[in-house]
Amino acid sequence: MLRKGLYGIYGGVEFSITFDMDNNLKIMTENKEKIDATFEDTYQNGVYTKIVKPNEIEDCVSITPFGIIKEEKVQILQEKENEYQVATGSLLVGSKLNLPRIDRDSWLGWVSKSEVMLIEEITPINPEDL
């Protein structure tokens, strides 16, 4: 599964981190095995959240996924079962990878996961700074 955004450890378990409209720090997951009765499925969409305090989060990181295809670095935007959606702002890279041009300076397309070497750029974050 593609990890993108903020993540942290709460109670020994890794969760995605987000904020609500009131700027409360929330942890979230779709995995029911990670939660207890203190989590809510506010919108009945299978996403469980819990408001936490920054000092309750350990090992907070920001994760940005990239891919290497034919020795070229591309952004990875999302994934399907067997493909990644990749993007670049480089004419040379877009042409080399045969990506469809979607704008003046943007190339975007779906590429088989088997052609992509996934790289996660991980930056430590102090949860108190969020």
Q: If you had to describe this structure to a student in words, what would you say it looks like?
A:
There is one protein chain. With 130 residues, this protein is mainly β. The chain has one helix at 91-96, and strands spanning 5-10, 13-19, 25-29, 48-51, 58-69, 72-79, 83-88, 101-103, 106-112, 117-124. Strands 1, 2, 3, 4, 5, 6, 7, 8, 9 and 10 form a ten-stranded antiparallel sheet that branches. The relative contact order is 0.21. The model has no long low-confidence stretch (mean pLDDT 96).
Keywords:
10-stranded antiparallel sheet, 130 residues, 51% strand, mainly beta, single chain
Task: Summarize the SSE layout with pairings.
Elements: E1 5-10, E2 13-19, E3 25-29, E4 48-51, E5 58-69, E6 72-79, E7 83-88, H1 91-96, E8 101-103, E9 106-112, E10 117-124
Antiparallel strand pairs: 1-2, 1-5, 2-3, 3-4, 5-6, 5-10, 6-7, 7-9, 8-9
Strand content: over 45%
Radius of gyration, Cα only, in angstroms? 18 Å
Low-pLDDT windows of residues: none
The count of DSSP E runs of length 2 or more, i.e. the number of strands, is 10
Helix/strand/pairing category: mainly beta
Number of helices: 1
Note the overall shape: elongated
Largest sheet: 10 strands, antiparallel
For the residues shown, what is the average pLDDT?
Answer: 96
Order of helices and strands: EEEEEEEHEEE
Report helical residue fraction: under 10%
Distance between the termini: 25 Å
